[in-house]
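Team,

Forwarding the record for the chain on the shared tracking sheet. I've put the sequence and predicted structure together so nobody has to dig through attachments.
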Amino acid sequence: MPLDKLLVSTYNKGKFVELCDLLSPLGIPIVDLDTLGISESVEETGKSLYENALIKARYYYKKTGICTLADDSGLEVEALGGLPGVYSSRFAGKHATDKKRIDKLLRALEGKPKPWICLYRCVVAVCVGNGIELTFEGTVGGEITDSPRGENGFGYDPVFYLRGLKRTMAEMPMSIKNQISHRAQAVRAFVNSGVIAYL
């Protein structure tokens, strides 16, 4: 049976817009949890981005029977020993805003020698059914800035600075971000894998 739609398991509207753009070459409808009337969240109990991405993909596939894509992303800061890493979204508490997470990150870096080298990492998991599960990874390196800059993006984008482009992720239009970001690399690896032709 050919794949006729793909569920992107996120409630984050900014992320959903980015993913729809990245997944558009597949040429199939992309739906989110809100569209399907699903309001419950699954607990991310994994100890790695891979585990969390698979937990979400499996959960929503089992609930809907629709091929499901989930991602988990983390910011790894060298000066903090790789933190917040897998805990990036919960770094300042379970329901914290992006601003609170960024504020806590900058407080944790106070007094530590610069540059504050960091890495954005994303793992995308796709649960197809019949026991078929796929994972793809993308990374991009940068530095943490002293203060937020830019109005685009979400998460830690306002303090994630790319020296080569002389701007933060939040200062980039989506057309540029979706060429270089960690999420773009992981999703593009899925799109370009050719696996869609066999689903």
